[in-house]
Amino acid sequence: MAFNEILSDRIREAIADLPNVMEKRMFGGICYMVDNKMCIGVVKNDMMCRIDPAIYEPALEMPGCREMDFNGKPMKGYVYVDEFGLKTKEQFDYWIGLCLDFNKQAKASKKSEA
Fold first, then answer.
1. Which distant-in-sequence residues (6+ apart) come within 8 Å of 29 by Cβ?
2. Each residue of 60-74: pLDDT tens digit?
3. Domain count across the chain
4. Domain contains 108
5. Is the pLDDT of residue 114 over 50?
C-alpha cells in the first residue's frame, strides 16, 4: 500500500539532524524510529504520532487529529493527523515536537525473538 512520500520527506527533513534515526516499513506505511523507539510515521496520507498518553485526550481535539485504531482497537498514545492538521509549518512542527518530547521518556518495544 502506498503512503504519502511528500509527508514522509517532510518528516525525514525535520528529524535529519537527530542521532540514531532509522526508517522502518510498517502498518502499510513507514515509521521513523528514534533511539530504537517508534516515534513518527506515515500511513496512507496521515502522520502517525506517538505522543504522551497523558495528553492523548486533549490532542484528539486538535484540527485533523483522530485516534489511531489498529484492528478495531484504539491505541492510546498514538494518533493520526491528516493533511488538515498539518497545513502550516507551525502545525507540522507542533506534532513533530510532541512526538520527539515523548520519545525521550517512551520505552522501547521488546524485540521479538524469531
1. 1, 3, 41, 42, 43, 44, 48
2. 999 999 999 878 888
3. 1
4. no
5. no
Give the other-Cβ count within 10 Å of 62's Cβ.
15
Domain, as residue range, for 26: 5-103
What is the grid cell recorded at 19? 542521532
- Quote the cell numbers at residue 6: 511528500
Q: Cα(first)–Cα(last) distance of the chain, in Å? A: 25
Torsion of Cα atoms, 47 then 52 then 56 then 61, to 10°: -60
pLDDT for res 96: 98
Q: What is the CATH number of the domain that holds 99?
A: 3.90.1150.30
Query: Percent of the chain having pLDDT more than 70?
Result: 94
In order of 20, 33, 77, 93, the CA distances from 90 in angstroms are 25, 22, 21, 5
